[in-house]
Amino acid sequence: MKISDLIENDLVFDEKKYFTAIIGGNPSEGARSPILWNYTFKKNKINCNMLSFDVADKNLEKLIFLLNKNKFFLGGAIAVPYKEKIFKLLKNNTSIETSKIGAVNCLYRNNSGELTATNTDGEASLEAFNNTYKSILNRKTLILGMGGAGKAVAAFFAKDINNKKNIYISSRSIEAKSYAELLESNWLNWNIFNDEINKFDIIINCTILGSNKSRHKMPINLNSIKYIKKSAIIYDIIYDPSPTLLLQTASKNNLKILDGKKMNLLQAALAFDYCIKKEDRKFDTFETMFELFSNLS
Question: Domain of 132?
Answer without folding.
Answer: 122-259
